[in-house]
Each structure stands twice: as structure tokens, then as C-alpha cells.
Description:
Elements: H1 2-42, E1 52-56, E2 59-66, H2 69-82, E3 88-94, E4 107-112, E5 115-123, H3 128-136, E6 143-151, H4 159-172, E7 175-180, E8 184-190, H5 194-207, E9 213-219, E10 229-235, E11 238-246, H6 249-260, E12 271-272, H7 281-292, E13 297-303, E14 306-313, H8 317-330, E15 336-343, E16 355-359, E17 365-371, H9 374-388, E18 393-399, H10 408-418, E19 423-429, E20 432-439, H11 444-455, E21 461-468, H12 481-495, H13 511-521, E22 529-534, H14 541-560, E23 569-575, H15 586-592, E24 594-599
Parallel strand pairs: 2-3, 5-6, 8-9, 11-12, 14-15, 17-18, 20-21, 22-23
Antiparallel strand pairs: 1-2, 4-5, 4-7, 7-8, 10-11, 10-13, 13-14, 16-17, 16-19, 19-20, 22-24
Helix pairs in contact: 6-7, 7-8, 9-10, 10-11, 12-13
Amino acid sequence: xxxxxxxxxxxxxxxxxxxxxxxxxxxxxxxxxxxxxxxxxxxxxxxxxxxxxxxxxxxxxxxxxxxxxxxxxxxxxxxxxxxxxxxxxxxxxxxxxxxxxxxxxxxxxxxxxxxxxxxxxxxxxxxxxxxxxxxxxxxxxxxxxxxxxxxxxxxxxxxxxxxxxxxxxxxxxxxxxxxxxxxxxxxxxxxxxxxxxxxxxxxxxxxxxxxxxxxxxxxxxxxxxxxxxxxxxxxxxxxxxxxxxxxxxxxxxxxxxxxxxxxxxxxxxxxxxxxxxxxxxxxxxxxxxxxxxxxxxxxxxxxxxxxxxxxxxxxxxxxxxxxxxxxxxxxxxxxxxxxxxxxxxxxxxxxxxxxxxxxxxxxxxxxxxxxxxxxxxxxxxxxxxxxxxxxxxxxxxxxxxxxxxxxxxxxxxxxxxxxxxxxxxxxxxxxxxxxxxxxxxxxxxxxxxxxxxxxxxxxxxxxxxxxxxxxxxxxxxxxxxxxxxxxxxxxxxxxxxxxxxxxxxxxxxxxxxxxxxxxxxxxxxxxxxxxxxxxxxxxxxxxxxxxxxxxxxxxxxxxxxxxxxxxxxxxxxxxxxxxxxxxxxxxxxxxxxxxxxxxxxxxx
Length: 604
């Protein structure tokens, strides 16, 4: 009896336990459902559509990707108003906007007579075959070196028309560099004379389609040869006369006669002008040519009274030392001689991978290394000459049939940075680029980093050892800015600056004025000054404004022809807006037509 009662008691207990467990689960489920409905109701705002809420017992899990921190805070605040914040598990993430860097692509045309080099990026919208066809049509003997890359990128409005304008401009400018950027077109070129330069400026400005900002820099030859140059390269039977300067016809005949003994058959040109650094200059050139002819491979450069000689020959050191001894005994002490000798043995595998550029404080640039073809060599030399001027570039580049890698792109990018340095060096191999030197630009490191990031492949490591040196900025002592401006204006008042009526070209009668102004500018080249052009009130105001601007620029260009630094100058036309006399009289109008220098300071 007792046993039967015990079994019934146990069975009844089990039934009661199960009932309690079922009731508990039902109660929890009811609580979870009720809480979830309440939370979803409170967060039904459309701005919180990204929010997910799940409940596990008394724990509330919230997740999702919020568009910003403010949205996340709003969601947590609403949920905390319904339940205890301690029960909330916050797994909300903030959306991260991916901002793609804006890429500015550049396309450059380099023309050195019949050699045209294309460097940079061409959009896929442009058919490269048609572009190359247009470039080849510039002349019958045009040679195209295409170092460009076709890439998918959007172009600014008018890009195609501006590209056509660039090709047309290249046709007019045998020695030029034309750069197409995002919304700018920069044209740097040489003209035969100042007058021709003015004509070219007018043509280019008038034919510009106007979509891009146009920047023109057209230089004209100087009557003074400075520096006086002679440069001859020999590689076996191949001899190239790159530069030649002579003080008169007789000296030119002597130099060209000595050059012909190296086997040059074609007619050579030798520029005649003033500026010979020594009365013995021609004789020294002849002596060096006579001694160096025993070597089959060399590079010879005269720059004023500096002589740079590089011998690449397998004849041995003894013959070179004998040559150097004779040279130093025969050449006057006023000439500085710098020589180097390299054995004619074949380059090692490591040397075939290197390209080296050096630039000294005098601006002399030396290119040395191995390239795969003539096109790459022409492109690099042409670019170097456009940056550093032809007379400052020394070429020791060797062509080899089996280079391990083509370093042309890295070399072009490195040269662009070298152009910003007072002096420095560049060394390139297949996996790295190292450049060091000093510059007067305080932002030189950032400039170099941005340029290399844009033009060099990502897997190329580049090392920058670039320093800003404020001492490289020329600071003449004892210069009185007010006196500089006063002296220049006195020269103008005394001697006059004359233009033909309605013209923008300086009259020959102004040559003496410009010469005197140049003498003053050599001491005042860091004083900030504005060249103001002014007219009388006759004619249309818009035309007078244009004429006054062109005349101010003509004075600046004339100063440039005297090798004057003009970075401190700006040219501005005022038209008829600032008269100093009565425009109703002939005398007054003559006084109002003037060029006037003004000191620029913080106040004006």
C-alpha cells in the first residue's frame, strides 16, 4: 500500500515538473515575441530600415550596417528606451565610404625636328592609330617614338578638339614640348627670332579652341652665345658633332676642318657669336681634337673654360694616362680639365640593369646606362635636352641587343624630378629607383612622391633622399627695391620704349633701353616688380587693353633675351584706365602711351 502510494506521488511530481517547464517556455516565448513586436514598432522609422533585431531570452542583439554614426546612436537610443540598455548587445557597423583617388592623366608630345616622342596616357576613346597617322603626316621624314599607354579614363569636354590643336601646334613648332593635362595645355617651344615667336604666339592663341587653359613659353635665340659650347661623340665609325661655337668665320672653318678628320661627311653647322671665354678657345679645341683622335670611343664636351672628357676604350689605362699628361701640358691653366676612363670590356649583367643620371651644381647633366633601342634613347635624350638645355646634356647611353629590362619610363619620370633639383643623382634598376639631391623648393619631396605615384608602376620601389635648401634661393645683398624700380623707370623716361602705332613689337630704337634695363635687373632679379603697359584713349577699350598687355609681355620677353631671370616679374596691361596726362592733346596721348615698372609688396 505504502509502495503504491509512493509511486503515485512520484508520477504526480513528474507531471507537475513537466507542466512547470512547459509553462516557463511559453512565458519566455511570450515575453520575447511581445518585446520584439514593441521594438520593431518603435524602430519602424524608414531611416532605420537597415536595423536587425533578434531576442534570445532577455538578451537583445542588434546588428546591421548604419549609414553613419548618428543613425547608429538613434537606433540604440530608441531600443534603450524600451528595455534596459544592459541587456543590449550592439553589433552595428558603420558604413565606410570608399573614396577613389582622382587620377590626373598627362599626355606629352616631344618634338626635336623630325623626331616626335609620345609619352603618357591616351584615352581609349581616341584611336591611337589615327593619332600616330596624324603625327607622321607632319613631315615626310617624321620618326615616331610611341611610349604612351592606352587606358580607360574619362576626359574633359573638348579634349578631342584640344588634342587636334596640340597636333596642329606640333606641326608649327619643330622644337617643342606640348603637354595635355586635365584642363590645361602647356606649350614650350623655340623660334628662330623674337619676331617669329610673336607670330607663333598670335597663331596659337587664335587657333586655340578654348576648352583648356593655354600656357605658352616660346623662346628666341640670343645674340650672345653663353655658354660657349663644343661637343663631339665618337663610337667607332659613328661620329656625331652635337654642339659647336665659334667667334668668327675663320675659327669656324678651323674647327670644322678638324672635325672632318674623324670621318664626318655631311655638312656641319657651327654657331658664330660673341661670348668666347678665352682668346685661346679655338686653339684649345684644335689641340684636344688632335690628341683624342687615337681613341675609337669617347665623349668630348667644352663648356666655356671647362673640358669634360670620357674615354670608353679597350686600349688600357697606360695610353689614357699618356693622353691625359700631354693634354694637361698643352692646355693653358685657365681651362679646367675633367677626365674619366672606362675599359672597353663588355658590361656585366648587373650593369645592363642600371641607368644613372647625375647633375652638378653648374647644371651639367650626365646620362649613362643601357637601353634596348634607338627610339628609347632618342626619347630620353630629347626630354633631357628640353629640361636642361641641349648644351648641358652629356650622353653616355649605350644600346644593347639583350637588355634585361627597358628602363625608359622610370628614366623619364626621374628626369622630371631631376629638373627641380639644383644638383643630385638618379639611379634606376628593374625593381627600384633612388634619387637624391637638393632643391630650392620646400615641397620637393611631396612633388616627387606624387609624380612617381602617377607615372611609375606600383611594384617599383623608389627611395627619396631629397632636401630643401633655402640657401639655394638667390638673395643678393644690399639691394634697395625702391631704387631698383626707380632706376628702371628713369631709363625708360630717358631713352624711351617705342612700339610702332597699333603694334606690339619693340622698335629697334628701344634696344639701348632694354640693354640698360637688363644691367639693372642683374642686381635686382629678386625684387618683385610689375611691368605695366598703358595706352591712350583712342580706339576701343578692349583693343587698348589687349595691346597694353602684349606690349608689357614684349618687354619681359626682351629682357629674357639678355639671360635675365624674370621669375620676379609679372606683366599686366592697363589699357587706357590710368592716364597721367590729358588724352585730348597729342603731347598728353604720347605720355599716356608708356611702359612703367611698379614695386609689388604686401600692400599692393
